[in-house]
Amino acid sequence: MSHQEQVMVHGNLCAPGPPNNAGYNSDPVPVIIQTESRDKWSKKMDFLLSVIGFAVDLGNVWRFPYICYQNGGGAFLIPYVLMAVFGGVPLFYMELALGQFHRTGAISIWKHICPIFKGIGFAICIIALYVSFYYNTIIAWALFYFYSSFSSTLPWTNCDNEWNTENCTNYFGKDNVTWTNYSRSPAEEFYTRNVLAVHESSGLGHVGYIRWQLLLCLFLIFTIVYFSLWKGVKTSGKVVWVTATLPYVVLLILMIRGATLPGAWKGVVFYLNPKWEKLQETSVWVDAAAQIFFSLGPGFGVLLALSSYNPFNNNCYRDAIVTSLVNCLTSFVSGFVIFTVLGYMAEQRNVNVEDVARDKGPSLLFITYPEAIANMVGSTFFAIIFFVMMITLGLDSTFGGLEAIITAVMDEYPDTLSHRRELFVLGLVVVCFLGSLSTLTNGGAYVVKLLEEFGVGSSIIAIVFLEATAVSWFYGINRFSNDIKSMLGYTPGLFWKVCWVAISPAFLAYIIISSLMNPQLLTLFDYEFPDWSITVGYIIGASSFIWIPIYMVYKLVWTPGSLKQRLAVCLRPERTLPDIHTDSMGLSPVS
């Protein structure tokens, strides 16, 4: 097996497991320890910052605050915390433990868990590619804004630019300004007409031409990504010391500045004011489950990849708790950063906070917040640091997503790729860049929305559902617990076992069923996506998930023997030695 070895230890390696222990699998198992051929993190903090950088992304800043106020303000924190405790964190812990014990990527790990489910690894890699096709374009937008911020007067401050229309209405610093349904702020027109140029596209049927400015920005982004990943975790582990910590410095600065703005308290009250009646709505609990799942990010193969470079005895349990807490607290604090500014805007417009808090998704970061920044004292400084924060938040997640693909493929084909990492990473970056070209067109924002909705969406949730089921029910919860004991020296408690076996899969099934039963109308900038585009979206979603049943059929057909024998081989992990663990004195059998 790649980058792994089976180690003979002193003592009787064939000692049987505990007799009559229900669920205990006494099949021989391999001992997997780190070898010199596999990369290692230089420091523990390199790993922690990489995980935090992946989990804390742009969604923490734009998605959580919007979902929180939309679903009951402070009351939303109740379903959010419950979904995190019983669903998100157990899955997060499971992936860190799996990656650290088996020390391999998302594809080859399945021969050690349940070979028939190996298609999950291929599906994860395809989804990671889809994410790279649109996510880096959003970072490119932020880079465009960053470049545009180096001006004494920010270009989205007034309506005197060539891209502005007669509907452009600047209300800051002016009295008796009439705001109608047709009014557009300077920040909105800068985003839609100068950055995206969506007015030159009629929709997905005619997306227009590639915008060279965005093409250049994306090229710079992928250049940074390549030179951060080309040498492995030893280089990316150093880069994250900047990209994972800088956003927290900027968030602190922006929160302090936001708190000093007039009307900031209105935004905070609106953000946290509990609406308890909202807890009776099913959609609130669905949103809480989806938010914590996509925020922590299990199932993307990233946690498997990053933890596979850890020492065998690393305390992955503590890592899971710490990084999950940091992620959730970041989301919560980001709400204050956003809503103090929304309160300020409401004060300036002389309207209610809900009237300026309608934007969601990227629009919150590219229209609403820049608009407020443009009218602050020191607007250029705050604009620059805000978009630096966005770029670094996005880069961390890109590092993680592409490292998941790199680790998975290189561990699956070590003989071919183990000494060609630089070339493989270059090829992967080129593929991602070419795949992103459609998102750089005049109608690229519509492509981004389509990929975001269908390229990830229900597909990744269904994949994690199968992953959790395969580990808990096919691999076996007792076997998995023994794996953790071999690393940490103690078995996971009853709470974790119950979550892995029942609660977390139910949590995922709940999200899948709810999303399928209540499909949302897909719109962007008053553009309703046509029916044919929705069909294309479902095909995109199916194109990743389909590899799971395809591989199952392939594995069953090509495995020799009767059907019963084939099933036995396909469901049985490749294990040749009994469970052992590494303690302070070395390797010893699990009792």
Automatic annotation (TrEMBL):
The chain crosses the membrane at residues 47-65, 77-98, 119-147, 209-227, 239-265, 285-309, 321-346, 372-395, 423-448, 454-474, 494-513, 533-554. InterPro entries: Na/ntran_symport (IPR000175), SNS_sf (IPR037272). The keyword Disulfide bond applies. Pfam families: SNF. It comes from the Eukaryota. One of its GO terms (biological process) is amino acid transport. It is found in: Membrane. GO terms for molecular function: metal ion binding; serotonin binding; serotonin:sodium:chloride symporter activity. CDD domains: SLC6sbd_SERT. This is Transporter. It comes from Sinocyclocheilus grahami (Dianchi golden-line fish).
